[in-house]
Amino acid sequence: MKIKKIIFPTLSQEQLIFFVALWLTIFYNTSMFSHIVDVYPLQRENILYVASTFVVHVAVTTLFFALLATRYTIKPILICVLLVSSVTAYFMNKYDVVIDENMIRNAIQTDIDESFDLLSLKLVGYFLFLGVLPSYIVYKTPLQTRDFKSALWARIKILLFLIVLAFGTVALFGKFYASFFREHKILRFYANPGFWIDSLRIFVQQSFEDKNTKLQVLGVDAKIEDNQTRKIVFMVVGEAARADHFSLNGYQKETNPKLHKEDIVNFSQMYSCGTSTAYSVPCMFSIYNRSDYSYKKAKYTENVLDVLKHTKDVAILWRDNNSDSKGVATRVEYQDFKTPKNNPICDVECRDIGMLEGLDQFIAKHPKKNILIVLHQMGNHGPAYYKRYTKKFEKFTPVCNTNQLEECSKESVANGYDNALLYSDNFLAATIDFAKHYTKSATAVLYMSDHGESLGEHGIYLHGLPYFIAPDAQKHIGSFLWLNERYKQLLDTKKIEAKKDKELSHDYLFHTLLGLFGVKTKVYDPKLDIVH
């Protein structure tokens, strides 16, 4: 009994909240404090400043819990925060990611196979020792019984003390915090659990607001005036393909041997709308530029597929070997190719090249219509790059054969990633070969990756950082256009060639797809059309 009292002493609600806040600050904020120390090195003049951030974090976290928790909700709230924060701490420490609302949306939309790619013994260890164990202690700790008046007065006193402590510390080091909040806003993004809780609030607000909002119809006036030549366009949406690892862009390893042999226009300066699939894919097919795009706007506004559908002259098919279309293909024909039921080429996972099987049947089914086929790749989805290709394409070695990228050398991480690009090169060349069969039609293959990828530069892995702080590796993406001879006769290829090294972005996709089909509509902007 004495041992039990030592391990699980009776505490007041305020004491329990404080100890949990202290525990969170010490063990779950390695990422935040390492970033703070990067900006303010532990030298004599900075020690007090850095120490003050520790005090402020404990005070603010305790204040947050003290405002929310009651005798009956305190333990459920603390346990939920501990469990979730153990997982967020793992990903922040290992991959240097930020858990904002877009990352939460990306996580929720991730399928089971992708989730398994992220599992590891270390993640289990974090969850057990930073999640389950302290949660069990919280659960077993007895709380003091007090009457309402005493409990209220105790809570008021602790709230006043915390407010004075937090604001007093900030005031005491006023010049430091003026700089901290003005010049280094990014540092607060690493606060655990504060930032992910606020991001979750934003995500929930975005998900449930305006449930009755009607879908904004777009381009109902769309029509194709010149239908003499049938057009077949293959739009390939890549996954996590960064431009500086394309040999087409001068990368020292030959990651695009087959594409080098094709007559393509390589867009060397293409930039993504976002840094995650959940953000970029809806954005790139929407009418909105990156500067005025939002999740809500995309959700309640028709996209370029809808505009093409309004012409009644374009048959559209979306095939997906990734998680899904992120809502883009909701109103067109959609086929899931991440399952052996549909994809005939599957081993440890279903392969992108399987998406080409049976496309001739879809094209033949619509003999009098133009065709748009969207192929959404698995591509270079991390962190298990070694799974993204077959053994035949393991050209660059040694390879990081684990999802624990930080345990591998940068060379082996890059090699696995580059082998996946090599496999994509094979798939993209096969798509072009498939398009070449339709000599009587104007055929095109347009490729754009959804976003890039960090491979350990400055300790950052994967993608998903807020756009304004994300490195170019997560935003500068691979992209090209291939046209057959019939299509070249319809377009001014010199104008297209002139844009190969111009800075372009996902903003251009909406209008370029309309331009490829010769669609006339009020929503078309020729200034954002790559082919005109």
Topology record:
Elements: H1 2-7, H2 13-27, H3 30-39, H4 47-68, H5 74-95, H6 101-109, H7 112-118, H8 121-140, H9 148-172, H10 174-183, H11 194-208, E1 223-224, E2 231-238, E3 264-266, E4 270-271, H12 277-285, H13 295-299, H14 304-310, E5 314-320, E6 333-336, H15 359-365, E7 370-376, H16 410-436, E8 442-449, E9 454-455, E10 461-462, E11 476-477, E12 479-483, H17 485-490, H18 493-497, E13 504-505, H19 509-516, E14 519-520
Parallel strand pairs: 2-7, 2-8, 4-13, 5-6, 5-7
Antiparallel strand pairs: 1-14, 3-12, 4-11, 8-12, 9-10
Domain Sulfatase N-terminal: 233-519
Domain Phosphoethanolamine transferase N-terminal: 58-206
Membrane topology: Multi-pass membrane protein
Verbal overview:
- The chain has 532 residues and is of the alpha/beta class.
- It has two domains: 2-208, no CATH class; 223-528, 3-Layer(aba) Sandwich (Alkaline Phosphatase, subunit A), CATH 3.40.720.
- Helix content is 44%, strand content 11%.
- It contains 19 helices and 14 strands.
- It has helices at residues 2-7, 13-27, 30-39, 47-68, 74-95, 101-109, 112-118, 121-140, 148-172, 174-183, 194-208, 277-285, 295-299, 304-310, 359-365, 410-436, 485-490, 493-497, 509-516, and strands at 223-224, 231-238, 264-266, 270-271, 314-320, 333-336, 370-376, 442-449, 454-455, 461-462, 476-477, 479-483, 504-505, 519-520.
- It has a seven-stranded mixed β-sheet, sandwiched between helices.
- A hairpin with a 5-residue loop joins strand 9 and strand 10 (461-462).
- InterPro entries: Alkaline_phosphatase_core_sf (IPR017850), EptA-like_N (IPR012549), PEA_transf_C (IPR058130), PEA_transferase (IPR040423), Sulfatase_N (IPR000917).
